[in-house]
Write a structure and sequence with these properties.
Blueprint lengths: L2 H8 L2 H7 L3 E7 L5 E7 L1 E2 L4 E5 L4 H8 L2 E7 L7 E14 L3 H6 L7 H14 L2 E15 L7 H15 L1
Antiparallel strand pairs: 1-2, 1-5, 3-4, 4-7, 5-6, 6-7
Length: about 160
């Protein structure tokens, strides 16, 4: 998929709404060769998805071996809005707590006092983290208004052809 197409999809208002959410689902191939799909907090920096995790997270071994990932960001109402992304995970070990980690956890409902306590706990627990940075190489937005899943689009096209025959 060409970069201008990816950018056009990601700049649509619905995509921007989804990219502002807290959680996505990260799919990758685990060490034993089986698929994994996990919810994980994220932030969008305008061109990349950034995830943060512990330095001892099992997914890191898998991502070092096979960095290809698929991401899903969606809403839980009808009609669903779904943003599907694919890309390659780049791992960046950092000392301390990445600013993105503090940003991606900023929308949870906490009082200012709870936020201070939470941040102190995080800083005392982690001496460093791993930033997982994903630049989208493929994107599809499904909103069931202007876009549909590919298989449904095909069925709609086939029905139209039958009706014209």
């Amino acid at each position: 998929m060409e970069q201008h197409t990816i950018s056009e999809i990601l700049n649509r208002p619905i995509s921007q709404e989804l990219l502002a959410r807290d959680l996505l689902r990260l799919a990758y191939v685990a060490k034993d060769g089986t698929p994994r799909n996990i919810p994980i907090a994220f932030t969008w920096n305008g061109s990349q998805i950034v995830l943060c995790t512990t330095k001892n997270a099992p997914k890191l071994h898998s991502l070092r071996h096979n960095p290809q990932v698929a991401l899903t960001i969606d809403i839980e109402v009808h009609p669903p809005k779904i943003l599907l992304l694919r890309g390659r995970a780049e791992l960046d070990v950092v000392d301390g707590i990445p600013e993105e980690y503090l940003q991606m956890n900023g929308s949870y409902e906490m009082t200012p006092e709870q936020r201070v306590e939470w941040e102190a706990e995080v800083r005392s627990l982690y001496d460093g983290m791993v930033r997982i940075v994903i630049t989208p190489t493929w994107a599809k937005l499904i909103d069931f208004d202007t876009t549909l899943p590919t298989a449904v689009e095909e069925l709609v096209r086939q029905r139209a052809e039958r009706q014209q025959a």
